[in-house]
Design a protein that fits this description.
By secondary structure, this protein is an alpha+beta fold. About 45% of the residues lie in helices and about 10% in strands. The longest helix is centred in the last third of the chain and has 57 residues. The C terminus is likely disordered. It binds S-adenosylmethionine. Its EC number is 2.1.1.-.
Length: about 500
Amino acid sequence: MDGFIAWFQSHGAHLDNSSLGIVDFPLSEGRRGAIALKDIPECHTLFTVPRGLTLSTRTSQLPKRFGVDAWQKAGLHKGWVGLILCMMWEQANGSSSRWRGYLGKDPKTLPDEFDTPMFWGEDDLAELKGTSVVEKLGKADAEVDYTTKLLPAVKSRPDLFLPNDLSTYYSLGVYHIMGSRILSRSFVVEKWNGDEDEDDAAGTAGNISMESAMDVDEKDPNQDPDRVGHEEDSEDEDEDEDDPSDVAMVPMADILNARYQTENAKLFYEKDVLKMVSTRPIKSGEQIWNTYGDLPNAELLRRYGHVDILPLPSGGSGNPADVVEIKADLIVSVISSFLEAVKGDQAKERIDWWLEAGGEDIFVLDHDFEVPPAMISFTKLLLLSEKEWEKARKKSTPPKPKLEGALYDILISTIERRFADYPTTLETDRACPTGSLPLNKRQALIVRIGEKDILRGNLQKLKTLKETDSIRSAQGSNKRKAALSDSSSKGKRIRR
Ligand SMILES: C[S@@+](CC[C@H](N)C(=O)[O-])C[C@H]1O[C@@H](n2cnc3c(N)ncnc32)[C@H](O)[C@@H]1O
């Protein structure tokens, strides 16, 4: 890494190399990462990166050279396609690129190969059936962007993109590599507040559908220590993701690995620089971790190509951040098989109303084993009688999320049907000898088991609640009967 560090420092960046060392970990632990070379106190700046050294559609000269209007006309201001093209172009420019020490082959700091499912064959992808990974891969959409936006843009400017470079630097294969580098290593770097005059060469319009990796905090914790570790970032992140020109590659910051709830360093931004600052004291020899958010294994695998395994609150091991998605469609389908009444137009009317009011169409189960209130409310909405539905619509209030009656059976069936999306059972998966499996199959198995554990936990809890509820209502009705017969006999006595 000496060549990379020399390049980094010669471009206005600062590295405290008495505190941070770059080392190689085993493949299973993420290859390269950073460790503390001595005890590091909280709020210590490990390195600073000038904004100009981050690589984005704002900092690369390409959008300007291409022409801002032409850039937008070609659709390069939406999603990641513009940044991918900038990275390809900077790489093709070799030693004349400002990022030669970052994108070049020597020194080599960015990977050309990934363990992410984007690069898996059909056989390995089949192991992920039932998980949310496959439909979120977006490979086909990415390829459409390549064919309809990037390639025509490249071919339209042979002065910028040499025709001889097409197969080396602008191929579909390189496009996927650059996309995966962004997915696993990019940060969302907002403009400095009040920096109105900053030259935003690429423009800001457009939506992006893909998410980027890590977040950056606004202030240096040395100036505002209270902000360190606060959880308000995810909200900001969603807003930031709306502006593709905020997505940036940040040399050095992307060397830090991540693990569930171990973050001890975070990137903060100032007017001219980004700073990686320790958010906890770090002991000499400890790894320096930067969070990617505590993500479920399905997301870790899709974006980064690894999974987390830790002790779980309910016992056993897995990723405590795991979740299972249940589509509203599945509930509709389960209910229609239970009851004729909510089929067709009637259900559609209620679903449209729910969605228009901002209701979710995907419900997320997690290790709490609590059915999400929105899922209960949505299910109840479909079960309302015509009269109740009219009342709810008039009052603009969805049903209260209280578990009762037919809901138990419908939710239990929904979870059982969700289980059937996976080709294997939890028991079969558990019996698999993980140690002997190749990496992709092993990671897919861990994702599957994690999701099925959550389904199993939710199913068992629902069954227990149903039983308790029916015992309680049976007791209640017995008491009511006893009270009735008591009061009626008392009545008789009085009459006598
Ligand atoms: C931001 S980069 C970190 C630097 C990276 N290790 C490298 O060698 O360049 C993120 C990538 O590191 C790896 N990684 C990070 N944390 C990991 C972990 N806890 N276990 C395994 N791999 C990890 C994954 O390959 C991920 O895509």
